[in-house]
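Hey team,

Filing this mostly as a record. A colleague (T.K.) asked me to run one chain through the structure pipeline before their review meeting, and I want the input and output archived in the tracker in case anyone asks later how it was produced. No errors, nothing strange. Just documentation.

Input sequence:
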Amino acid sequence: MAYYNKNNGSFNSRNNRNERRSSGYSRDEKRENSYSGYNRGEKRENSYGDNQRYSQRKGKFENKRFEKQPEVIEEKATVTEIEEKAADELPNILMGRNPVKEAIKNGRSIDRILVLKQTDGSLREIIGLARDANILVQETDRAKLDELCMPFGYGERTGNHQGIVAYVPGAEYVELSDIIEEAKQKNEPPFIILLDSIEDPHNLGSIIRSAECAGAHGVVITKRRSASLTAAACKASAGAVEYVKVARVSNLAGAIDRLKDEGLWIAGADMSGTNMHEANLSGAIGLVIGSEGKGISRLIKEKCDFLVSVPMKGQLDSLNAAVAAAILMFEKQRQSK
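Output structure:
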């Protein structure tokens, strides 16, 4: 059978066509023959040399494109560090009538006092004490006090200044040795409260207040991850901060070792501990209170001589840190009688 060939205008047999197809090269062979000797990797290497790139703008070869750029690690401040920095920038003030009154009576350094123009009996009494102590007293309006105390309030409410605010030069911390010396001067077994990362200033103030009422000789806090003696903490202490020595240490574990050398037994407040009524809390005791959420850290728990717990009833299995601290303090006081 013949067929017409358009290329040469002649008739060819189909057998010749099949014979030509079988005798010719395949598509794969044609690709191989046409591109023999060409390798994409080899061409790049041969053309550009040692991983170089030709820059049309500079008219020369350069290696920038292929150089490994150094990894840049940007250090970001943690939320805790940001909050600590913001707290340090706030004015150091005492809010409320009791804190200001107790500070004056205790002889604490006060730069000046701001008070409402409209005063009542208790405010006039505080003003009289301040003037007797040669402290500058300035009258102002409520809007000024509200603005000054706004950072120490809850939500969008201002701090409860009760019509009076005192500027103080700074928190007056003591050394750990000063607390130990306080117990020796009173000829009493040392009773010291150690706070492991208590971050709420209101809890800190409440614990200091309970410590003063329970007869503790001092409170130890840490410099990092802990609330400091801000205006909110002093307000929550209701003036107790003027009577309780507060030491601020860099390493709580080191402070515990120091207290052990002084003969104190270290008790840690923990739900897995011995019932406080069965534990021996008499004598020289250092009581460790853990943070609001996580409790005592693993390292500090290992440093404790024993753990003690508050017996619980009901559906909940935990207490606020300040409440638990107060209960254990007064149990220690009861056993020491």
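Quick notes for T.K.: Residues 88 and 258 are 29 Å apart (CA to CA). The domain at 90-167 is CATH 3.30.1330.30 (60s Ribosomal Protein L30; Chain: A;).
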